[in-house]
């Protein structure tokens, strides 16, 4: 199983950050598992953003819930993240991961998103 | 939700054993057997080392072990090797059906 994040590396303040995670090696729709987004600001620890079940049920970090939307597209074998009204504090490496047994077993390589004008 | 508490750094000499703690509350670490540990080398994605408190995924060395007592989980690395030098992160399921990470611990092999 492989995961690959994609999306803009630079986003302007107040705009929306959009990332997609493409899964290869198996079908998202055939695996009753969860898919998550995690980020890591430069030099800091990991922060869980949210998780989506393959059927579409979502769980969000309470601190981001008002700005965050995670969705899944089983036809494209992808799941996505949208974070609105970004600020410099949202600058981070964003990872997507497959979540089994409430643990993140497979990770993408990560993509750096910088929020700057 | 508050991040789990980990020591900022730990160190040990080759061959020694070290333990990294991860302290939460009864609403996360203490309430569920869903604690996991991740190893992260610089510039790399995290790698799952322990899941469900004490289980090792296939391919992870048996030098890595996990345990839990009350609201504190622990990762022990025995027979420390130079390649173990990395950041280690814990994570737990919470009573709100969310997940929470610790702040991370930098392990230095002297």
- Indicate the low-confidence ranges of chain B by residue numbers: none
> Roughly what is the average pLDDT of chain A, rounded to an integer?
95
What is the H/E string of chain B? EEEEEEEEE
Give the largest interface: A-B, 24 and 25 residues
Helical amount of chain B: under 10%
Number of helices of chain A: 0
Secondary-structure-based class of chain B equals mainly beta
Gross geometry of chain B? globular
Low-confidence stretches of chain A: none
- H-E string of chain A: EEEEEEEEEEE
Number of strands of chain B: 9
Q: Gap between N and C termini of chain A, in Å?
A: 36 Å
**Using DSSP, what is the number of strands of chain A?**
11
Mean pLDDT across every amino acid position of chain B:
97
**Structural class computed from helices and strand pairing of chain A:** mainly beta
Question: Quick gist of this model?
Answer:
Chain A has 117 residues and is an all-beta fold.
Q: How would you describe what is shown here?
A:
The complex is a heterodimer of chains A (117) and B (110). Helix content of chain A is 0%, strand content 54%. Chain A contains no helices and eleven strands. Chain A is globular. The mean pLDDT of chain A is 95. In chain B, a hairpin with a 2-residue loop joins β5 and β6 (72-77). Chain B is mostly beta strands and 110 residues long. In chain B, the strands form two sheets. In chain B, strands 1, 3, 4, 7, 8 and 9 form a six-stranded mixed β-sheet that branches. A three-stranded antiparallel β-sheet of chain B has the order 2-6-5, with no helix packed on it. Chains A and B meet through β5 and β10 of A and β7 and β8 of B.
């Amino acid at each position: 199983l492989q995961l690959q994040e994609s999306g803009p590396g630079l986003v302007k303040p107040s705009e929306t950050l959009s990332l997609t995670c493409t899964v290869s090696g198996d079908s998202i729709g055939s695996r009753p598992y969860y898919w998550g987004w995690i980020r890591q600001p430069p030099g800091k620890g990991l922060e869980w953003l949210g998780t989506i079940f393959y059927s579409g049920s979502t769980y969000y970090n309470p601190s981001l819930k008002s700005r965050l939307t995670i969705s899944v597209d089983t036809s494209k074998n992808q799941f996505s993240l949208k974070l609105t009204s970004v600020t410099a504090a949202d600058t981070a490496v964003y990872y997507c991961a497959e979540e089994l047994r409430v643990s993140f077993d497979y990770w993408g390589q990560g993509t750096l998103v910088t929020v700057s004008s | 939700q508050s991040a789990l508490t980990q020591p900022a750094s730990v160190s040990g000499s080759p061959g020694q054993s070290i333990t990294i703690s991860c302290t939460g509350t009864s609403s996360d670490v203490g309430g569920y057997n869903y604690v996991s540990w991740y190893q992260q080398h610089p510039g790399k994605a995290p790698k799952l080392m322990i899941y469900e408190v004490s289980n090792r995924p296939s391919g992870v060395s048996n030098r890595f072990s996990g345990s839990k007592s009350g609201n504190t989980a622990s990762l022990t690395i025995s027979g420390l090797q130079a390649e173990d030098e990395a950041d280690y992160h814990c994570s737990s399921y919470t009573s709100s059906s969310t997940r929470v990470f610790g702040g991370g611990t930098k392990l230095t092999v002297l």
